[in-house]
Amino acid sequence: MSRPAVVRPRIVLAKPGLDGHDRGIKVVGMALRDAGAEVVYLGLQQTAPQIVGAALAEDADVIGLSVLSGVHLAVAAQLLTACREAGLDDVPVVVGGTIPPTDVDRLKALGVRDVFPVGTPLPDVVERIFDIARQGGRSS
Q1: DSSP secondary structure code for residue 8 in this structure
Q2: pLDDT class for 5, splitting at 50, 70, 90?
Q3: For the chain, which end, N or C, has fewer CB atoms within 10 Å of the first or last residue's CB respectively?
């Protein structure tokens, strides 16, 4: 099912797995909020079912993951599977963090819409996430 265009995107952000550092995702969340998005930050050590449950409850336009521990391929695959099982195929998933250049295409092949390696300029992150939300999010 196609979703209507987004006026004010709602973005669910989470730190899956055992990552213990969340400064970067908080900075991204504040930048998205300052640009006009509604941001729901779930915090550290979130599981795929927890993230999907929050995305359903919050009617998310985009789900954003921050992964610094090197398990980005596994957690992205788990989340995308959980999204499909919950009928959230139309909610784009983006991943940021310590992502080697060789894994960007691998993440996109799994179904991740966009990837933001460490060092991606913050204005680019915000612009690209808003563009993704406008391409197929909920109406506000």
Answers
A1: S
A2: low
A3: N
Q: Are 16 and 46 in contact (CB under 8 A)?
A: yes
On whether residue 77 sits in a domain, the answer given is yes
Give dist(CA 90, CA 113) in Å, integer. 11
Measured CA to CA, the distance from residue 77 to residue 129 in angstroms comes to 20
Domain that holds residue 87: 10-132
The model's confidence at residue 1, banded by pLDDT at 50, 70 and 90, is very low
The pTM score is 0.91
Per-position DSSP letters for 23-34, written without gaps between them: HHHHHHHHHHHH
1 belongs to a structural domain? no
Angle, helices 72-85 vs 48-58, to 10°: value is: 50
Task: Identify the H or E element spanning 55.
Answer: helix 48-58
DSSP line for 74-126: HHHHHHHHHHHHTT-TTS-EEEEES--HHHHHHHHHHT-SEEEETT--HHHHH
Rounded to 5 degrees, what are φ and ψ at 93? -115, 130
